[in-house]
Amino acid sequence: MPVHSTRIVIAEDDPLLREGLALLLRAESLDVVATAADPDGLLAAVDAHEPDVAIVDVRMPPTHTDEGIAAAVEARRRHPGLAVLVLSAYVEQAFATDLLAQGSARLGYLLKERVGRVQEFLAALRRVVEGGTAIDPEVIAQLLTRTRSDYRLERLSPRELNVLALMAEGLGNAAIAEKLFVTPGAVHKHIRSIFAKLDLAPTDRTDRRVAAVLRYLDERGSRPRR
């Protein structure tokens, strides 16, 4: 199917990015049939419009963790022919693996910085629509990297390491914020980023805060022996 005849749904909770992306695609004579700000809106738009491709942000309300991935997986389950192009601010290996578990045909996973490189972005969209795969080179590199835990702390920024160290001391968000002279909201944002960079996807079986602290202690050689 020629890319110019495709029907597109965009799911992105940031209104500026959502509308900017829609304007970009429409300027290229592409048919954006609907936009959505949350997973429910995405699924409703896909059901109503039966688009050829959905462009989906990984992190969406209400928790801004993996809702976009979960909605993309569900959309492909409901509409097996749907192409999906996922956008993420940075590589989230666990989420990429979840999506790729369905198969790589008609699937793309790009870092958001690629959107600014318009021709690269349009080429990736075209490959996905035509039944191929468009995976960001950085995503591929990290998916192929050894996943030993001692590499993971290196992904964290100095401030994120500070937050994790204070978590390991048993401090809550408010106490961490007071220690670091930042707002509790900033601490919450750092912790979300820590979970993502340590590949700690939401699960009913594991408390991610505890898992992050255990990984920190293990890599620092101070995890208690059993």
Automatic annotation (TrEMBL):
The keyword Cell inner membrane does not apply. The modification 4-aspartylphosphate is found at D57. Residues 149-220 form the HTH luxR-type domain. SUPFAM superfamilies: C-terminal effector domain of the bipartite response regulators, CheY-like. InterPro entries: CheY-like_superfamily, NreC/VraR/RcsB-like_REC, Sig_transdc_resp-reg_C-effctor, Sig_transdc_resp-reg_receiver, Tscrpt_reg_LuxR_C, WalR-like. GO terms for molecular function: DNA binding. The keyword Signal does not apply. Keywords: DNA-binding, Phosphoprotein, Transcription, Transcription regulation. GO terms for biological process: phosphorelay signal transduction system; regulation of DNA-templated transcription. Residues 7-127 form the Response regulatory domain. This is DNA-binding response regulator, NarL/FixJ family, contains REC and HTH domains.
